Amino acid sequence: MTTTGPFPEQPEGVLVSSLTKKQRAKVTAMLKAWVDDLDEKAAERLIAKYVSEYDKTYIGWSGGTTLDNNQTYVRLDGPSAWIEFSNQPGASTDGIHQHTIFRDETADYGWE
After folding, report:
1. Would you call 30 helix, strand, or coil by DSSP?
2. Whole-angstrom distance between the N-terminal and C-terminal Cα of the chain?
3. Is the pTM of this model over 0.70?
4. Which of 50-54, 62-66, 88-92, 101-105 has the weakest average pLDDT?
């Protein structure tokens, strides 16, 4: 996926709102990793917006589910927040490294 292309038309995965409270907290923590570099008030507004959309936000994954598994892939697809996270085997190192992207579908850049 490029950073300037369209989003998939059909979400995949399970609704975040169907997850347990503990699992939803992990989704919120993932979102905070992206928005907490903003000033505190802006970050709080975005997190509140994204959490309020959990009944329309899907999370899907394949492969592993841990940071040390080179098959781990996670996608969050909501009305606003879009995150892809993929572990990759090392090309020039022995370890794995992460590829990830965050976009806001309501405030995206570079698309139309």
Report:
1. helix
2. 16
3. yes
4. 88-92
